[in-house]
Every structure is written in structure tokens, then in C-alpha cells.
Amino acid sequence: MADLSPSLLASESTIRVSAWDLLSAAARMALDAGWHRMAMKRGDVDQRRKRIIFWLIYSMDRTLSLSLGRAPMIPDYDIQTDRLSYPEDVRKPMSYLLVLWVDVGELQGHIYFDLYSAQAQRQPVQVKAEAAKRLAARCLKIQETMRIVSSPLTYEWLATDLDKREKSIGDMPARAQEALQGQEIIFQSLLTLVYRMIPPTNSNHPLQFCDDCVQSARLALTLHNRAWQEMAARGTDNWRLFIHWSTLLSPFVPFISVFGNTIAQADSQDLALLEAFVLTLECAAEHSHAIRKLYRACSSFHQIAKVYISQHSQHVASLRDRAESVAVDSRSMDTIVEDNLQALPEFSMSQQEWDVMLSDWDLGLGTEEARQMSSFLDLLPVA
User: Fold this and answer.
1) Which of 87, 128, 148, 156 has its CA 20 to 30 A from that of 264?
2) How many alpha carbons lie under 13 Å from residue 318 in its C-beta half-sphere?
3) DSSP per-residue string spanning 138-196
4) CA dihedral for 35, 37, 38, 40, sign (positive or negative)
């Protein structure tokens, strides 16, 4: 099981494929040793240790596999070993989170198999949408349980009033705060990934997502940005590690989801949210290759959205100027603007092409410097 430590280090240094290879070796060793089919022996300290290691491998396998878009190495249907329990197996109160992270790992496996595997991709849209609703409900239930276990004070940082939040968590150790903040970001990222499979009800735009997906994505970015506000004074190294485990170790599709909504709705507030997120990556990008890649990719998407919103605003202003020149009333003016906006050039990307690009996003790094979208700049509306 010595492979476990290098795999964690590799994931932190962003060599995720190498981490997955090391974790694969650890999983094979655990399976070869029969740790997935251990009969329960109460009071057996050695078996307890093996069970803890096995379920730790299981959880890491599910997290890393989903972030790489690969099937988990340890299938649920082949496991007989009992789950960990508190306080029998893990005795410290905060260690109960490890028990719950096994549930998160099981959820991550279902997200891949039910929504993103090759078999799932062949399913009708409605079938995947129903599966997504079930998985979202399961995710929300686990999230709420972890909030309760983690103490109500911990999650007061989610309040919109930053001053109250700082006072409420002022006595908590900084590391605990960071871990629980990152935990919340991971859950919102998972919810975004799940809700992405539910089609929007009020738009046919290929870059538009359902309302729940957009809301979860916005919240993930907002929480990330708030965490930066709280951690900026603690030094770059702490922030770099926080990004690695909260943003890079799980599928981080919230940024691209907010980007899509920015374009589809010409939403200037979402554009500001994207810009704030990009700025949080800037200092850490100097000290991490993976964060630097994420920073460059997100910067490219942000610039595309910025140019689009600018051109869109100029077009709207031009339409209003022309409407005013012919002295139409305000209601007629809004109708003229709306009708002309409907005729604006759309991105030359079909829903299928957008889905493929998003599925290959791979934490924002799947499209090399956003090249697949750079041609959109030629199609932006001109005032």
C-alpha cells in the first residue's frame, strides 16, 4: 500500500494520470489480497486497518477516475467487505467524514456509469435526465448529512454577510475551515456535473443549461472566490494546495457552465463572476503547472465572453439609437431591440458539438487553450 502516498503527492503536483496509475497499482494489490471480500471479524485490529485502507483506496479511485473521465477500478458489485462505521472503525468525530466520503465515492461512480459512460451516452435524453434527478437528490442528501456532522458553525461561512461569517468561524482552526470550504465547492461541482444532463426548458441555445445547473455552477464559483478572500492573507502556498484538492481533484465544470450561460443570456453579472474566478488563479499559477494550464484556459474563455458581451452591448446601443431617431415609444423600442437581437449571429456549434467539447473539458484543460472555441470570435455580432 506504499503506492497510496505517491499517488496523493502526484495528484497534488497535478500529474493526475501518474496518480491514477499509482492508484491503479494500489487497487490491484488490494483486490489481489482479497481486501474487497473480507468477512467481518469484530475486534480484529489488523483487519480494521485493512478495511480502512481499502475504503480509502475506493474513495480515491472514484474521485480521480471521475475527474479523468474513466471507469472506476473497483466495481461496487464485486465488494463484500463491510463499510466503515463510527465509532467502531473510526473513533475521532471528524474521522466520520471518511465514512461519508465512501458514500460520495459510490455517488461518483454512479455519476460516471449512469450519465457519462459509453453505455449512458447511448441512452435517450429523458432517461439520462431522470437518472440525473435521482443522483442530484442523493448528492443533496449526502451533502446535508456532512453539513450536520461537520457542525453548524462550520457552514455559517456560506452566509452572504461576510462579516457575520468571519465572526462565526473565527474560533475554528484554519485548516478545518479550508477543508470544509473545499468540501462545499466539490459538492456544488458534482451537482453541476449531474444537472448538466437535464435539458433546459426555456432555451434552445447550445450553450444554455438548465436553471439548477447554472445556479450550482454560480455557487461553486462564488464559494471559490469567497475562499480566496479569506485565504489570500495566509500565503500563496495554502491557496495553491486548496485549489489542487477542491478544484483540480474533481470534475470542475462550473466555470464552463457559467461561461455558456454568459454567452446564451448575454449576462454581464456572470461575466464578472468569471473574471473574479480567473483573478483568483493568477498568483497560484506561478507555482503550479496544472493551475497555470487552468488559468490560461479560463482566461481564454473569459476573453471570448468579454468580447461577445462588449459587441452585444454595442449592438443593443446601436439599435436603441436608431429607434430613438425615428421617435418610437419605449414599448415599441424594446420590441425593435428584442426582434433584432433574435437575429444576431449565433455560434456555429451544434448541441452535439458543444456536448462533446464539454465532456472533454477535463477540469477546463481538455480543450488546449480553448482553441476549439477561438473561431467563434469571427462570428460575434458587429455593432
Assistant:
1) 128
2) 11
3) HHHHHHHHHHHHT-GGGGGGGSS-HHHHHHHTTTS-HHHHHHHHHHHHHHHHHHHHHHT
4) positive
**Mean pLDDT, the chain, integer:** 77
HEC assignment per residue over 240-275: HHHHHHHHHCCCCCHHHHHHHHHHHHCCHHHHHHHH
Query: Global pTM?
Result: 0.80
- The pLDDT assigned to 5 comes to 47
In a 13 Å sphere around the CA of 368, the CA atoms on its Cβ side amount to: 0
SS3 2: coil
Cα torsion 300, 305, 306, 307 to 10°: value is: 90
3-state helix, strand, coil in the chain (%, to 5): 75, 0, 25
Sign of CA dihedral 256, 253, 185, 15: negative
pLDDT in the model for residue 342: 46
Burial 340-353 (b: 16+ CB within 10 A, else e): beeebeebebeeee
Range scoring the smallest mean pLDDT among 18-22, 50-54, 326-330: 326-330
Which DSSP string do the residues of 289-317 spell out, in sequence order?
Answer: HHHHHHHHHHHHHHHHHHHHHHHHHHHHH
Q: How far apart are CA 300 and CA 282, in angstroms?
A: 13
The CA distance from 38 to 266, in Å, is 56
Look-up of cell digits 459510490:
106
Nearby residues of 195 by Cβ (< 8 Å), 6 or more positions away: 132, 136, 209, 210, 212, 213, 216
